Amino acid sequence: MGQKKAILFGASGFIGSYLLQGLLGDPDYQEVTIVVRKDLGVSHAKLKTLIGDFNSLPAMKEDLAADEVFIALGTTKKNTPDQKVYYQVDHDYPVLAAKLARARGAKAVFVVTAVGADAGSGVFYIRTKGETERDIIAAGLDHTHIFRPSMIMGNRTESRPMEKSFIKLFSLINPVMIGPMKKFRGIEGADIARAMIAAAKIPSGKVKIYEWQEMDALLKAR
């Protein structure tokens, strides 16, 4: 039984659900804390569930002690058309989570953003992801791991017909995306989660960014 403790934000989401499975099944971790808006109905000897959201998070600070924090929070324009609310979910919540976890002893943060993230972009989505990266790095944990997927593949529980069409397209064009285009290759949600957990086992510097090629290398090294 390992000695590490992890906190996971976004456990009810697509990548987060795979992260939860992976962390609970990994002998390196003795405790996994999740912060969710409602109970997921998952029971496990290592699992600690906290019910809360962005607004109630500061009051939970004492319960956020861990070695590592995994953040797979996010929404979509369809689910959150209000840009202010979208920004809170995609930027404010992850940044607050990283800051509070650091204050309670976390040494490393693993966060999912998106390929092309750029705080200077004129595109709201790309700028938001870039600002999230910038501000989580500024939170000052010993190690910041940033995962930038392009198209996230796999079967989601919610219906996204347009996305399914894109996933089929990416399945066809992935092999011809070579050289600088490799970072735009689609990747399975389960593989992103596996790569994040794999990264936690390897010594790293202050900031490490993983695009498709780096995630693929982590998966092949396991």
Description:
The chain has 222 residues and is α/β, with parallel strands linked by helices. It has one domain (4-221): NAD(P)-binding Rossmann-like Domain (Rossmann fold, 3-Layer(aba) Sandwich), CATH 3.40.50. The protein has six helices and nine strands. The strands form two sheets. A seven-stranded parallel beta sheet has the order 3-2-1-4-5-6-9, sandwiched between helices. α2 (83-103) runs parallel beside α3 (124-138). The longest helix has 21 residues, at 83-103. The chain is globular, with a radius of gyration of 17 Å. The model has no long low-confidence stretch (mean pLDDT 90).
Number of strands: 9
Q: Give the low-confidence spans.
A: none
Outline, from the CA principal axes? globular
**Fourth-level CATH superfamily:** NAD(P)-binding Rossmann-like Domain
How much helix, percentage-wise, in residues?
25-40%
End-to-end distance, in Å? 19 Å
How does the helix and strand content classify structurally?
alpha/beta
Largest sheet: 7 strands, parallel
User: What is the name of the CATH class?
Assistant: Alpha Beta
| Helix-strand string | EHEEEHEHEEHEHEH
* CATH hierarchy: architecture: 3-Layer(aba) Sandwich
What is the number of domains?
1
**Beta content:** 15-25%
| CATH topology value | Rossmann fold
Number of helical segments with 4 or more residues: 6
Strand order of the largest sheet: 3-2-1-4-5-6-9
Calculate the mean pLDDT score and round it.
Answer: 90
Radius of gyration: 17 Å
